[in-house]
Amino acid sequence: MKRITTILFILLSFIQQAAAEHITGGEIYYTFGGQSNGTFTYNVTLKLFRNCGNVGAPLDATASIAVYELGTNRLVQEIQQNLSSSRELRLSTPGPCISNAPEVCYQVGFYNFPVSVPASPNGYIIVYQRCCRINGINNVLSSGNIGATYTAIIPGTNPVASGPENNSAKFEGVDTVIVCAGYMFTYNFGAIDPDASDNLRYSFCTAFPGGGPSPGTGPNNTSPSPPPPPPYPGVSYNFPFNSSQPLGPNVTIDPATGIITGRAPDQGIYVVTVCVEEIRDGRVIAVQRKDLQIKASGCDIAKPQLDPDIRQCDGYSYTFTQPNNPLINSYFWDFGDPGSGAGNNTSTLQSPTHVFSAAGIYTVKVVANRGQECSDSSIATVRVFPGFFPAFNNTGVCIQNPVHFTDATTTNFGVVDKWQWDFGDAGNTDVSDQKNPSYLYQSPGTKNVRLIVGNSVGCLDTLIKPIDIIDKPPITLAFKDTLICVPDAVQLQATGTGNFTWTPLVSISNPNTGTPTVTPTATTTYHVQLEQEGCINRDSVQVRVVNFVTIIPLSDTTICLTDAVQLNVVSDALQYVWTPANTLDDATIPNPVATPTGNTVYQVTGRIGSCTASTSIRINTVPYPLANAGPDTTICYNTPAQLHGFHDGSSFNWSPASSLLNATTLNPTAYPARTQAYILSSFDTRGCPKPGRDTVLVTVLPRIIPYAGNDTMVVVGQPLQLNAQGGDSYLWIPATGLSNPAIQNPIGIYGPETDSVRYTVRVYNVAGCYDSASVKVTVFKTQPTVFVPTAFTPNGDGLNDVIRPIAVGISRINYFRIYNRWGQMVFNTTVNGHGWDGRIGGTPQASNVYVWMVSAVDYLGRPVFLKGTATLIR
Fold it and tell me: Read out DSSP for 610-629?
């Protein structure tokens, strides 16, 4: 079951991925086929685009198309149409004057079918839907999860009686166009209309979504069948793009020709939908749509980049900037300004700065690669009219009343005659083209008001200014609750913009200001109202009134000398003064922390205005009991330390006591395993509830690990280098034959009178602690030689199981070898003391006689060669 589930998940993932990369664009168009007995027939074509390199789903073998009557949304006809034909559109030779040219290729499918409908006042809409668009479209949110809706309108008899006898406009532009990001481009979305009396008008319009990413034929699935009726919502555009600027603000469409021109946006894929209105007898009878994804690629064109309309309204100087382009190696500029002088009117710089000779309109031309194969030019109209300063003012900030805006723009040339306001409010009605408009805001908050303003000579500029719209003016109160004592006065403090009014008018002066003075004789709540341009806000301040100050101290107390204690009183006072102040952390608060140096009486005075009251608290101090744990000490590892304590209290204890002998005395013996701090605590009954404490630190030095070396053998007269380890100083006992018994590495030389010596070396640390180790030196009376046993018994009893060389007076063994009776070497070593266990390849050998040979060098550098036999006994 798990395997089936996994396979099903993979298949669904593939289906969804295929659906998510299906649609690239499409349109529907038709021709009128005639009418008979009130029935009108049309020959309809659904044209769909798909990228050639798309790895998603292919073009559908069958398309589900619906025809709805407009106005009633009644389903008139559902059509299941097979793919009629398909062809490939490819731009294969982009030319030499473009680099990094992208592949432009579409697979185009055609679905041809007839539609027959009776005449209708409102007409019909032909609909096809498919999900999904390609992923990663720059100007549409979540493009891979939404589809597309393609429509065509068949006109009704209203508003033109001849509406049903219509041939739709058919887009005829070339779709294999290269668009390079950041470059000026032209894209033809022009259409033809067989009806000669119809006029066409073009505009950008919103793209329609359709279907959903889940496989199926429901209205929210990949292939709706039938597609649902109108109305159709628009897709959600990514900021700053929208339905009227799908390629950004620098790209426009000519309403008369359908030609899109402008500077291409950044690299990416963009949905572009163009609507063409069919106008007959001055009335719009139908709207046809073409929806296509346009790709802006990272290519370069040998064409200079120059905005066609440049407006310089800040001064006479203007810098024409050209980006670096690998296909352009020279520039020639003609500024169209002969008044600037022959030497100034042209330039060969890439990005020149020109100072125009006078205000006016100039035609500037730049030629790239002049006289070369890839030569091209751009022309710009430059309007030079300096002295244009956009500005505006506003009055009113209240959400309940209109805000009045006044244009304050000034110009040195022409007159200010164009205004486009955006008041920064939610919705589509917060705009105006009046000079001094008014606007009633629907919600409070900071609004970014934008004014695009122009003059009669072509200057255009944008000013954005934030304004704060309020539902009530803010009131800031210095306090909302206060306390006074009869007969004192207090000044209330409110700040804000507008007109203040205070109530009640009881014991108050200046009630129409933000800072009235009040003298109530009883607790009173004063209410304040602030009015600003029709907006009102309210708040209140409570003035509590008392006839005297209440101040009650807590009980006197006793503390240990040098301790701190918090003083407390229960009081309604607003200010406090404590004395003496030198042992307090803050003498002006109700609960200061005191650190008295002896018995002290603290006096406190509480104040409310002119009323005061006083009281006092006594703090008695008792010294801590004395405890002296003695001086710190250092001991050797695994040795005791004698502690010596002293105290003047009534009792004491040591801690920790676990490593102390006689822990209930002042002189215990400590046996710490490691460095340990011992605390002596002293207690008394004189009033200080805390013990006095002192600490003694017993430092335990690290354990000494002595090493004297391994037992060894020498011959008479052979120098022996001893070497002890583990400490800071050493003493060898006895000193027999040693060069210096008080060093780490003495040299021993022995005469014939010595058979062997066992040395004990004391290893000391810097504190004088020591431990001992020993080593035995055996002295042979022979010349330097290598001893080899004559027999061995490798039976595993641990006695004489291995035959090995025993070298005395030898500095190096070149080899020690053992051979069997057939001359086969069965063992070889160069290490003194290493031997043979009677096995060959792990197999025990039988009893037999074996020949050994040894080559060595003695301690004087003389060669030694010996050989002999040894018997293996089983």
Answer: TEEEEEEEEEEEEPPPPEE-
